[in-house]
Amino acid sequence: MKGKNEQRAGLLSGVAAYGLWGIVPLFWPLLKPSGAVEILAHRMVWSLGVVGIALLALRRWAWIGELLRQPRKLGLITVAAAVITVNWGLYIWSVNNGHVVEASLGYFINPLVTIAMGVLLLGERLRPAQWVAVGTGVAAVLVLAIGYGQPPWISLVLAFSFATYGLVKKKVNMGGLESLTAETAVLFVPALGYLVWLGTQGESTFTSEGAGHTALLAATGLVTAIPLILFGAAAIRVPLSTLGLLQYLAPVFQFVLGILYFHEAMPPERWAGFGLVWMALILLTWDALRTSRRTRAQAQAARLAAAKQAATTAPETPGTAETPRTPGTPGTAETPRTPGTPGTAETPEAVETPETPEASASSQPIT
Length: 367
What we know:
Largest sheet: none
Strand content: under 5%
Helix content: over 70%
Distance between the termini: 12 Å
Radius of gyration: 32 Å
Shape: globular
Structural class: mainly alpha
Number of strands: 0
Oligomer: single chain
Number of domains: 1
Number of helices: 14
């Protein structure tokens, strides 16, 4: 029961995390008249404050000393921070300039770009279904380029920057909260310096637009940290395949908001391009689920075979043999009992109780 409750809590956390990422386009327009770069700088500064408080509350700071002694990992975190700066900044600009649908496309094609980078940079081998999915994704980009009159550069930059970020994070191998803390710490000084410079130029909107606007800019830290914390709670409780399916919630929500709330245009050629992308993702998801089931079945068969092999080759445990008494060897003579004298009654031999099916089943793992 506890395991089911944990998995249910993880699933709800995952839905909440991707759901919040999906509706975040509703938040960025509230920060106007702040520009995208000013919003980005505030996001970096306030995010460090929020994740720092979270780490203090969780007493998770031992990793800081270890990180400072690893220059290579610090360099990778600096690269990750630079890449996510491009991703965050372009996404904020896209939403506040009427490109929500195109931004959502970037996160739709991100899994395809990640696979392509794995082949080109890591030499990974693809299954046939993955090749078809990647090819369909390339065809979708070509169709959209015709529809837009130019390549969908917003989508491509968002997809490639986020895929690069994921690749670097894989090499860093840190928890999400710790990684975000390190990245925002790297970005904190330049971001704060930019905000101070804006203030000296009289162009800062932090205090000039009222207390509500100030509070919204400060809330960028919460908007960044809360979904990440929820994602971390989901990642340790639900299977990776489930998270892989949940990741599509965010671009789906963004796409729907772009059409129904922001009323962005969707001519037929864009529908065709998005349709090809969705076909590629359906194929990719089907292949991933099929491979996951096959891998689990093979692993279970291997465990059963190993257990059977161990059972057949295990030596018998020798029992304690009764030592015969050698005739003539002095020993403890049995004291004859005087009739009528109370003595110790002979204890009857214990009868072995057979194991019941219920007891046997209770020792097996619940599947």
